[in-house]
């Protein structure tokens, strides 16, 4: 099984897509194309659109066509799904398979630390996520570091790294302030960050030059203000990590051009978190959801989206936040997150709408390989 | 918690220039004048006229009394452990302005109680904590826009607080608290060493030394927490020593001077001003210091400039107007008490060109009262900030 998956990933190398890094063994070998046609009552495309009675064709792990009444190659296997197909869900800010490995307490700034080297591909965390329809996660350095290193976008199957150096993680919240070591204050932290960005090296140079998005962890409203002012001072772009207090500042966040990685939700969370996401959505801010797995159950990802819809967020926007917008925020929108020609065939076959809590998962495909669901 | 008036002002967008007339049976200007049946006219954020002896116009907001918006130099608006950089015990160029949270509810509480200007200072866990800032308590959620005076004072602390977390070198070697003063004597030594080093520094000066130099020349007042008698004495002795060594224009403002009343002659001799601790808990304060109710009167009568503060007070004591009432109970006259919450703190902070009294051309910051100010039965029912009615009387 593992071999087959790696094999499929290797074949996905063609075209413009960035080369996946295979983190475990397995020799790619030549093979005829494997073509599958999926038909469903409804496709959610991941960009906010839906297509009823749609089809998609997958060849060797890559989507080659999406539409209605497509020509199905004679060799293709056909899967008729009496339900909904969406792109695989993407969890932003996670630490699957890397518990405790994403924070180095001996240094406050480790810009060139790389989360792609921190995780264990065979971790059971990934199996739990696949079962929840999550096909990619963004492993993110911890918010306790001023400069935590770069995040990595990882498939939840086979140790495939979609992108290394996805975002540079910066700690602008009180979590990066310490009780008995530098920095203990916001002013101290900002001065150190200003110093690092005024004379940049390594990954900080890339971020300062606009070639690497930053992911700034924030908590309260003053922290959001300080983070946006810091980003403006150094001409940075990227996303804020933390949405709970964003409600009043949604227009300011929109004006900054920053996206938001929304805080994970637990069922029963008080309503402010959802109101903030609604305000961000109304202001036109791009957002996705953090998960902080494995601390949280993977199902919390779509629960978060559902909670926001209940608070008034447009369901199409909420579905996009789980897929296409999350991929954009992580800088991998050309590779995953949508049902579109040329993108990886990461699919979830649902009984109904993904943000309906009563919907269940019937099968999950990653790079065209079924990783969840029984034989058909 | 919000009054309808505050909600309205938020909905309309705080900071929009507004014109208006506020009428009171008595207007106390804060610099000694009492104007009866007086209209205060404001436009574009400034006071444009004070007209006594008139009848109220229909569109005027009418209250019993108007005073200047009050000023609290020791307000509890930045007292978070994140408002001090404890990696070093002396951080003169630390800016508390970068640590403020304007969304904190304490700003609104100050504003609603008629305090329109405050000085925010670094948290007092360092010997020399850094630079204080004077800013308005309302308006745009933007520190820069609210700032009346950046770098208004060099803040530090004497007494037990700066050494309270420190210990000799044992345990975890990476603990920053294993190498800082553990006694009052050590705290004073840190101060004195910093000033002497700054005074005699050669070559290119670092940012901290430049700030210390500004304090040594009197450009920045030294605003030092000292509750107990020994700490008030230490502050005065140190500044006197530095004046003799350097520039006689160096200025000292003792903050939280609960026991300043025990050393009045010393304060007169040194020319130091005093921001008094709030009267709370029957006069029992920090560091075992006892705050006598007649402190403000004793010091004022001797010519010491006195300002009142709310500092850490809880409950009714946290309302600055109530502190003025306590000071009057201790013997201060009404005019003296009013000055101690308006023009005196404005002068000490160097912002009396804009705030602290009611005069044409000054900022239109008004406290609107439903009775005689500082009486137990009176309270602030409305507030005008930069010409905007941000808290409307019912």
Task: Outline the structure in words.
The complex is a heterodimer of chains A (376) and B (394). Chain A is of the alpha/beta class and 376 residues long. Chain A folds into two domains: 2-87 and 338-372, Urease, subunit C, domain 1; 89-329, TIM Barrel (Alpha-Beta Barrel). Chain A contains ten helices and 18 strands. In chain A, helix 2 (124-131) links the parallel strand 6 (89-94) and strand 7. Chain A is globular, with a radius of gyration of 20 Å. The two termini of chain A are 16 Å apart. The model of chain A is unreliable at 1-27 (pLDDT under 50). In chain B, helix 4 (184-199) crosses helix 5 (207-216) and helix 9 (320-329) packs antiparallel against helix 10. Chain B contains eleven helices and 15 strands. Chain B folds into two domains: 4-69 and 358-391, Urease, subunit C, domain 1 (Roll), CATH 2.30.40.10; 70-348, Metal-dependent hydrolases (TIM Barrel, Alpha-Beta Barrel), CATH 3.20.20.140. Chain B is of the alpha/beta class. An eight-stranded mixed beta sheet of chain B has the order 5-6-7-8-9-10-11-12. Classes of the chains: A alpha/beta (376), B alpha/beta (394). The A-B interface holds A 174, 177, 179-188, 190, 220-222, 225-226, 245, 248 and B 81-87, 91, 94-96, 98-104, 130, 141-142, 172, 174-177.
- At the fourth level of CATH, the homologous superfamily of the largest domain in chain B is Metal-dependent hydrolases
Q: What's the assembly state of these chains?
A: heterodimer
Q: Helix- and strand-based class of chain A?
A: alpha/beta
Q: How many individual helices of chain B?
A: 11
Biggest beta-sheet profile of chain B: 8 strands, mixed
Largest interface: A-B, 20 and 26 residues
Top CATH class of the largest domain in chain B: Alpha Beta
Mean pLDDT of chain B: 92
**Main beta-sheet strand count, sense and barrel state of chain A:** 7 strands, mixed
Share of helical residues of chain B: 25-40%
Runs of chain B in which pLDDT lies below 50 for 5 or more consecutive residues are 1-17
Sum up the overall morphology of chain A in one term: globular
What number of structural domains do the residues of chain B give? Answer: 2
Compressed to H and E, one letter per element, the order of chain A equals: HEEEEEEHEEEEEHHEHEHEHEHHHEEE
Number of separate strands of chain B: 15
């Amino acid at each position: 099984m593992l071999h087959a998956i790696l094999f499929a990933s290797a074949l996905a190398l063609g075209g413009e897509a960035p080369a996946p890094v295979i983190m475990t063994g397995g020799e790619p070998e030549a093979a005829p194309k494997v073509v599958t046609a999926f038909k469903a009552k409804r496709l959610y495309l991941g960009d906010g659109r839906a297509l009823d009675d749609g089809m998609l064709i997958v060849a060797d792990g890559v989507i080659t066509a999406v539409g209605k009444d497509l020509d199905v190659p004679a060799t293709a296997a056909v899967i008729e799904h009496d339900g909904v197909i969406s792109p695989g869900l993407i969890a932003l800010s996670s630490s699957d398979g890397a518990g405790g490995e994403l924070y180095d307490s001996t240094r406050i700034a480790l810009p060139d630390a790389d989360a792609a080297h921190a995780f264990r591909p065979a971790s059971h965390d990934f199996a739990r996520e696949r079962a929840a329809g999550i096909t990619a996660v963004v492993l993110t350095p911890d918010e306790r570091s001023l400069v935590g290193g770069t995040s990595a976008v990882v498939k939840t199957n086979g140790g495939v790294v979609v992108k290394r150096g996805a975002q540079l993680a910066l700690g602008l919240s009180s979590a990066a302030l310490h009780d008995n070591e530098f920095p203990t204050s916001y002013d101290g932290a900002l001065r150190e960050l200003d110093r690092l960005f005024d004379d940049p090296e390594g990954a900080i140079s890339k971020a300062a030059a606009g070639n690497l998005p930053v992911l700034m962890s924030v908590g309260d409203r003053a922290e959001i203000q300080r983070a946006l002012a810091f980003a403006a001072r150094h001409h940075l772009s990227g996303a804020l990590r933390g949405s709970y207090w964003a409600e009043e500042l949604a227009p300011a966040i929109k004006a900054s051009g920053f996206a938001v990685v929304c805080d994970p939700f637990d069922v029963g969370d008080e309503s402010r978190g959802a109101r903030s996401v609604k305000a961000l959505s109304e202001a036109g801010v791009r957002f996705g959801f953090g998960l902080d797995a494995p601390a949280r159950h993977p199902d919390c990802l779509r629960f978060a989206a559902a909670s926001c819809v209940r608070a008034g967020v447009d369901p199409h926007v909420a579905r996009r936040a789980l897929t296409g917008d999350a991929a954009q925020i992580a800088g991998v929108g050309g590779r995953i997150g949508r049902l579109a020609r040329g993108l990886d065939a990461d699919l979830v076959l649902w009984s109904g709408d993904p943000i309906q809590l009563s919907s269940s998962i019937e099968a999950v495909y990653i790079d065209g390989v079924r990783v969840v669901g029984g034989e058909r | 918690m919000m009054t309808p008036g505050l909600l309205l002002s938020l909905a309309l967008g705080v900071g929009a220039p507004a014109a208006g007339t506020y009428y009171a049976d008595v207007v106390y200007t804060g610099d000694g004048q009492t104007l009866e049946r007086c209209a205060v006219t404001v436009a574009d954020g400034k006071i444009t006229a004070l007209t006594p002896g008139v009848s109220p116009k229909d569109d005027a907001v009418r209250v019993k009394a108007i005073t200047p918006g009050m000023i609290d130099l020791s307000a509890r608006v930045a007292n978070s452990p994140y408002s001090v950089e404890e990696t070093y015990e002396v951080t003169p160029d630390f800016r508390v302005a970068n640590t403020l949270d304007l969304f904190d509810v304490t700003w609104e509480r100050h504003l609603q109680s008629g305090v329109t200007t405050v000085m925010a200072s670094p948290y007092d866990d360092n010997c020399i904590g850094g630079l204080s800032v004077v800013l308005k308590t309302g308006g745009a959620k933007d520190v820069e826009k609210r700032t009346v005076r950046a770098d208004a004072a060099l803040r530090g602390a004497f007494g037990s607080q700066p050494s309270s977390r420190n210990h000799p070198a044992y345990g975890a070697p990476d603990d920053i608290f294993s190498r800082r003063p553990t006694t009052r004597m050590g705290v004073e030594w840190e101060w004195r060493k910093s000033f002497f080093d700054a005074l005699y520094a050669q070559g290119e000066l670092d940012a901290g030394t430049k700030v210390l130099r500004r304090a040594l020349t009197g450009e920045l007042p030294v605003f030092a927490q000292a509750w107990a008698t020994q700490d008030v004495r230490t502050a005065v002795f140190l500044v006197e020593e530095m004046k003799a060594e350097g520039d006689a224009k160096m200025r000292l403002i003792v903050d939280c001077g609960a026991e300043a009343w025990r050393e009045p002659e010393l304060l007169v001799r040194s020319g130091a001003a005093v921001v008094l601790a709030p009267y709370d808990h029957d006069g029992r304060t920090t560091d075992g210091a006892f705050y006598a109710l007649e402190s403000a009167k004793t010091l004022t009568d001797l010519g010491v400039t006195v300002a009142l503060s709310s500092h850490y007070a809880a409950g009714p004591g946290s309302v600055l107007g109530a502190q003025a009432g306590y000071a009057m109970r201790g013997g201060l006259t009404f005019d003296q008490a009013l000055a101690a919450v308006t023009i005196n703190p404005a002068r000490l902070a160097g912002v009396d060109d804009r705030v602290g009294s009611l005069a044409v051309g000054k900022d239109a910051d008004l406290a609107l009262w439903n009775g005689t100010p500082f009486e137990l039965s009176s309270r602030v029912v409305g507030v005008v900030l930069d010409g905007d009615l941000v808290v409307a009387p019912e």
